Amino acid sequence: MSTVTIGLMCSFLAGMSTTLGAVPIFFTKKISHKYLDGLLGFAAGVMLAATCFSLIIPSINYGGGDLKAVLITSAGIMTGGIMLDLIDKYAPHEHMLFQNKKEGNSSSLSKVWLFIIAITIHNFPEGLAVGVGFGTNNISDGLSLALGIGLQNIPEGLAVALALKRENYSNKQAFLISMLTGIVEPIGGVIGIVLSSISKPLLPFILALAAGAMLFVISDEIIPETHEHGYERIATYGLLIGFVIMMILDVTLG
User: Fold this and answer.
1) Of 107, 124, 154, 156, whose CB neighbour count within 10 A is largest?
2) What are the UniProt keywords, alphabetically (predicted)?
């Protein structure tokens, strides 16, 4: 199979791992914030390590490893962060994981659709990162990214399903919606692969752009959500464990 085909398959599987995370809602009525904060901290750690070792360092290396390469990577990181910030400001959406919080322009869409848009904004950079990883034609780099994103999507899938349960959706509805939120990642994967394939000279910038978008999500969304109920120390250790595991995976596979 071509690198593109493998990349599409891996980005799809990474996105669908949200489905695996949602399975526990069929077997338990409630999961403590303490447990969930630790899991989401783990997800943040995996994303952070993937950003550093699978996106930022390759961006600098592909750019030549000199000061010019660092500046290009820096510009890409800032562009990715600003891009996510603008989408977050203007796309109507609502966060329901720990507290109801509407953002973006006003909309007549139902609450669940606003929540799905919020998760879509959150998940798109992850798919983009996986696609860009495979767009380098280095399958091992792409695989480590896809595996890491898949790992961190498991606790996110659980968090999404629990948020929907709190809004009185049935187990089946919460499970299906959680599964659907992962579909955006293959879309981001396609865009990442296409962008990387069109222009190799732009590859360092595109890698860094995906990194900046991921960093924005980590800092603006995941970490604040894990510090809402007094379990920030547990979430921090979860982040450290996730970072170390992803670092090991990246060195082993990359």
Assistant:
1) 156
2) Cell membrane, Membrane, Transmembrane, Transmembrane helix, Zinc
